[in-house]
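stage 2 :: seqdesign
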């Protein structure tokens, strides 16, 4: 291992040479209090920045064992250290110097969620962090003196500020850790209390804007649970907390327009993740197996059994093994439900605004006009109770226009000026006074849940030249030459999750024989276990710091939308 003083000499010697000479930096360098690994050097100043790893021995970092003694604490600590690096980068580094991306340190972007990430990880022996750096150049000539300043002066200062426990705000560290651990404990209590979600008293649900995940600061109404749905759960760090418990079964969220129905559903959707202190939804928790369902016109569907909802199509299309390149609103929503059930979902979240109307309801008048034998769609209204009864899958539905759902609801919550009111009794009274005139069309049973076996070799993660290609945005994932539309997959919290999904799919493609003949559900569970035990590293070709762990449901969503996907049987 080379010494940091040799690194200074090398950079001075490289000054003025062609940019490619920076490759001599690759390898490990010993500094007085940490080790620097130069894992990748960019090809030119306009290319993707170089990738560095910094490893600080734990006796130097000085983080007490109590701060990472279990998974929620460890994940929260790593998340906080990443945020500390990002906070200190503009304070201790000069920023852009030279051409292209020159002269900049950076870490992966992040949001309001506390996620398992690859940017920082903590072990018993050390703390390690991955940063990207634009090695400075004038044109394509190395600026060696500027590079020496970055790596020998600014980098050590950044490490000391962000990764040494003695320099951290201890109160903030404990709050971050406690927040994550408490939220995880709340979520663990849901099943034993027969709840699917919990919204803490005082939670701030609305966001700053449609393009910001930060809490609304001005005019936000703190959440007040209705007395009849009020429950108290325990937290290991902050003690008991009161809030609204949403029970298992079928729950409706009703109310007038702009009264907070969709805002509540969105908070519940994001409640599958833990959030940072001050987010407003720190103690809004939902079971991990909750998935948002919506219509998705134009999506690809491969071999999904949607016969529980759609059958007897006039053109004779097989709905037991339904495939299409261009699904309609109703067929896409049916496929979305069956796919998430196949992946193990236990809670469905739906908003009528993003659903296909003819999939959700068929009223008495329409039944009179269009006979059942002429209508291939069985509305969700007639399947929501059998779904819970047969498979234990609960549903939370935002409904503003159809009172027919009162007939099948266990709980009805009305949002009135952003405050929830339990109107279950009133809804049931309305059902008694105005009995349904429509005829149930779904039968007594829900139907079968798919058990497909994917052909993992149909996942093509490499370009025609054999290069692995994974590129991600919030809206889409490019895998090889395929672009997967994820714009309507609601619970991807951050782009780093999308990127991780790409590498997971690439791993499955390249290890197809390991999973050969196994149903998709088993494959997803194996991936989830490996992430839980080993992190994302087994799925990556190198030490990348710009990924965050997805759930199995978002991995499945990407695979199901991959247009090259084929099934074994």
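stage 2 :: out
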């Amino acid at each position: 291992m080379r010494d940091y003083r040799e690194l200074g000499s090398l950079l001075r010697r490289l000054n003025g040479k062609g940019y490619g000479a920076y490759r001599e930096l690759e390898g490990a360098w010993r500094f007085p209090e940490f080790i620097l690994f130069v894992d990748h050097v960019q090809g030119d100043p306009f290319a993707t920045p170089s990738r560095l790893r910094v490893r600080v021995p734990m006796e130097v970092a000085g983080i007490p064992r109590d701060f990472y003694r279990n998974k929620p604490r460890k994940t929260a600590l790593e998340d906080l250290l990443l945020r500390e690096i990002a906070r200190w980068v503009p304070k201790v580094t000069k920023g852009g110097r030279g051409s292209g991306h020159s002269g900049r340190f950076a870490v992966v972007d992040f949001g309001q969620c506390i996620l398992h990430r690859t940017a920082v990880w903590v072990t018993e022996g050390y703390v390690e962090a991955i940063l990207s750096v634009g090695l400075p150049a004038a044109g394509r000539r190395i600026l060696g003196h500027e590079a020496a300043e970055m790596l020998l002066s600014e980098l050590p200062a950044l490490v000391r500020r962000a990764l040494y426990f003695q320099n951290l705000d201890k109160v903030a560290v404990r709050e971050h850790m406690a927040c994550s651990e408490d939220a995880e404990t709340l979520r663990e209590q849901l099943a034993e209390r027969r709840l699917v979600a919990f919204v803490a008293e005082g939670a701030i649900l609305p966001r700053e804007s449609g393009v910001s995940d930060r809490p609304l600061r001005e005019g936000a109404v703190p959440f007040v649970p209705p007395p009849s749905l009020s429950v108290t759960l325990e937290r290991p760090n902050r003690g008991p907390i009161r809030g609204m418990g949403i029970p298992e079964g079928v729950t409706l969220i009703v109310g007038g327009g702009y009264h907070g129905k969709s805002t509540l559903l969105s908070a519940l959707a994001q409640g599958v993740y833990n959030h940072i202190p001050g987010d407003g939804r720190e103690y809004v928790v939902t079971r991990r197996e909750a998935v948002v369902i919506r219509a998705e016109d134009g999506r690809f569907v491969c071999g999904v059994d949607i016969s529980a909802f759609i059958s007897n199509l006039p053109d004779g299309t097989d709905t037991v093994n339904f495939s299409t390149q261009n699904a309609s609103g109703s067929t896409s929503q049916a496929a979305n439900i069956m796919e998430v059930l196949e992946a193990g979902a236990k809670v469905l979240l739906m908003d009528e605004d993003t659903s296909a109307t003819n999939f959700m309801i068929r009223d008495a008048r329409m039944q009179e006009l269009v006979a059942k034998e002429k209508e291939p769609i069985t509305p969700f209204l007639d399947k929501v109770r059998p779904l819970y009864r047969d498979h234990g899958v609960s549903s939370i539905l935002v409904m503003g226009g159809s009172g027919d759902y009162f007939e099948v609801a266990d709980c009805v919550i009305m949002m009135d000026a952003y405050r929830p009111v339990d109107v279950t009794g009133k809804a049931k009274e309305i059902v008694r006074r105005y009995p349904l005139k429509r005829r149930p069309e779904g039968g007594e049973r829900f139907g079968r849940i798919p058990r497909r076996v994917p052909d993992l070799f149909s996942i093509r993660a490499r370009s025609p030249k054999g290069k692995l290609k994974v590129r991600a945005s919030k809206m889409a994932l490019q895998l090889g030459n395929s672009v997967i539309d994820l714009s309507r997959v609601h619970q991807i919290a951050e782009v780093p999750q999308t990127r991780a999904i790409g590498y997971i799919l690439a791993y499955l493609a390249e290890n197809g024989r390991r999973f050969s003949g196994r149903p998709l559900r088993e494959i997803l569970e194996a991936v989830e276990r490996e992430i839980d035990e080993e992190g994302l590293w087994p799925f990556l070709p190198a030490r990348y710091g710009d990924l965050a762990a997805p759930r199995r449901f978002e991995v499945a969503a990407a695979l199901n939308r991959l247009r090259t996907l084929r099934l074994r049987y």
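stage 3 :: structure notes
- The two ends are 53 Å apart (CA to CA).
- Residues 170-192 form the longest helix (23 residues).
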